[in-house]
Amino acid sequence: MSPNGALSFLPPGVITGDNVRKLFEYARENKFAIPAINVTSSSVVNGVLEAARDIKSPIILQVSQGGAAFFAGKGLANGNQEASIAGAVAAAHFIRAIAPSYGVPVVLHSDHCAKKLLPWYDGMLDADEAYFKEHGEPLFSSHMLDLSEESKAENIEICEKYFARMAKMGIWLEMEIGITGGEEDGVDNTGVDNASLYTQPEDIYDVYSALSKISPNFSIAAGFGNVHGVYKPGNVKLRPELLGMHQEYTAKQISNGDAKPLFLVFHGGSGSTKEEIATAVSNGVVKMNVDTDTQWAYLSGVRDFVLKKKDYLLTQVGNPDGADKPNKKYYDPRVWVREGEKVLAERVKEACKDLGNEGRC
Ligand SMILES: O=C(CO)COP(=O)(O)O
Ligand SMILES: O=C[C@H](O)COP(=O)(O)O
Ligand SMILES: [Zn+2]
Ligand SMILES: [Zn+2]
User: Which residue spans adopt a coiled-coil conformation according to this UniProt entry (predicted)?
Assistant: First the structure.
């Protein structure tokens, strides 16, 4: 652990621009990483922020396209990504309003955006530009483009186009090359050929070389066997040691003395072993995404409460303490939703500890 307050140069609340790069540089130098937790409601946001505050950890909150639509409300039409745009913007404003109260730096990010979802991305960038006009910084800290299903040339070309627009506001870009298995935003990659789950060092260098001409503020989600979700151990193996090879290859090409020039992102963090996580971090992973395990944690808290208090939850009035006893204090969402938040917060703390992110600010 670094001395308390090592990241005190960062303000509490949502950080953008150079501050995001400084955070990732500091993490890469000091061999730790920051978990990125998918948030789908204000309750999930609060549970994650509470955990980060309690153990003095910087934190990344991210919305997926589906998670953003949920934030806006599943009752809204989303045919043209309107709910995903409105929900992402609403989540961002909520997080911006509340994050300073928790006293830790927060990176506000959007998750996978495949080619067919670019209208969602455009909507978020419009919101960034409007916010930038008024406040001199973007609404979000960073966004992810995931063109990993397209050809490498098209992937890089679309990234360059968007990154030029983002760089004007100092927005960080996370891009993906090599496919994450499992499922994301309804894109089913469960049957994808194993070889495409492991990104090649030459491909990473091509990305680095194109994007570094625009701005240093980008990271690469390289496939090293990553899979979204938690499954029985199968035939795909996580190989975080490959990331060291990527660093070496790019370092050799640019030969400027920088041994670890890449900022790398670990997708599919749920279900990974402590050892896999540590190896990834030692090879320059600065961000690890965790969704499935935090979903499970939240559910576990609610489920255990409901099962334990079942006899207080079957009728509005009447429980083991008396036929006339009201059950309001058990079915109030502030009681049972809170139980989900508590277990979620513990899982977030575990992710921070696994990544060496505890006590950093
Ligand atoms: O990579 C993720 C989000 O982009 C999260 O993956 P898991 O759900 O496997 O943790
Ligand atoms: O892409 C993976 C994340 O876990 C987001 O999942 P989601 O698309 O179901 O919200
Ligand atoms: Zn992907
Ligand atoms: Zn992912």
Answer: none
Ligand 1 pocket mutation, candidates 292, 298, 348, criterion most atoms within 8 A of CB: 292
Please report the atom of ligand 2 found closest to the CA of residue 40: 10
State in Å: Cα 64 to ligand 4 middle: 9
Instruction: Please give the positions annotated as active site.
Output: 111
Q: Which domains does the chain have, with CATH numbers?
A: 9-293 (3.20.20.70)
Is the Cβ atom of 267 under 6 angstroms away from ligand 2?
A: no
Q: What is the 3-state secondary structure (H, E, C) of the chain?
A: CCCCCCCCCCCCEECCCHHHHHHHHHHHHCCCCEEEEECCCHHHHHHHHHHHHHCCCCEEEEECHHHHHHHHCCCCCCCCCHHHHHHHHHHHHHHHHHHHHHCCEEEEEECCCCHHHHHHHHHHHHHHHHHHHHHCCCCCCEEEECCCCCCHHHHHHHHHHHHHHHHCCCCEEEEEECCCEEEECCEEECCCCHHHHECCHHHHHHHHHHHCCCCCCEEEEECECCECCCCCCCCCCCCCCHHHHHHHHHHHHHCCCCCCCCCEEECCCCCCCHHHHHHHHHCCEEEEEECHHHHHHHHHHHHHHHHHCHHHCCCCEEECCEEEEECHHHHCHHHHHHHHHHHHHHHHHHHHHHCCCCCCC
ipTM over 0.95: yes
Report whether residue 38 contacts ligand 2, using a CB cutoff of 6 Å.
Answer: yes
